Amino acid sequence: MIQSWAITEHYLVQAKALLDLDVMSEHSESLYQFDEFLKHNELGLAFEWLESIAMESQWNSIKLLEVLKLAADNMSRFERANVLNRRINELSGQ
User: Fold this and answer.
1) For residue 73, how many other CB atoms are within 10 A of its CB?
2) Above 90 in pLDDT, residue 4?
3) In the chain, where are the structural domains located?
4) How far is residue 28's CA from residue 34's CA, in Å, rounded to a whole number?
5) Cβ–Cβ < 8 Å for 12, 46
6) 5, 42 in Cβ contact below 8 A?
7) pTM more than 0.90
8) pLDDT tens figures, 36-74
9) Is the pLDDT score of 94 beyond 80?
10) Among candidates 13, 80, 24, which has minimal Cα distance to 48?
11) Alpha-carbon torsion 83, 43, 62, 53, what sign?
C-alpha cells in the first residue's frame, strides 16, 4: 500500500508541475493547501483540489489531464478517471 501511495504522490506532484505559471500564481493559496494535504498523506483531498484547479483553469491541457487520470486510476477513483478520460478524448478529437 505504501508503494501505491508513493506512486499516487508522484503523479500528483508531476501534475502540479504541469500547471502554467499564471495558474500557479492565481491558485497559490489552493496549491499551498494541496501541499499540506500531500504532507499529511491526504492524497484523495490533494487530488480533488488539483483536479478542481485543472477544471477551472487548465481544462484543455491533455498532458495535465493524463497525469491526473493516472493518479485517479492508482487510487481506484475510476469514476473520476472516466471523466478525465472522456475530456482527454474530446480534446484529442476522438
Assistant:
1) 17
2) no
3) 2-92
4) 10
5) yes
6) no
7) yes
8) 999 999 999 999 999 999 999 999 999 999 999 999 999
9) no
10) 80
11) positive
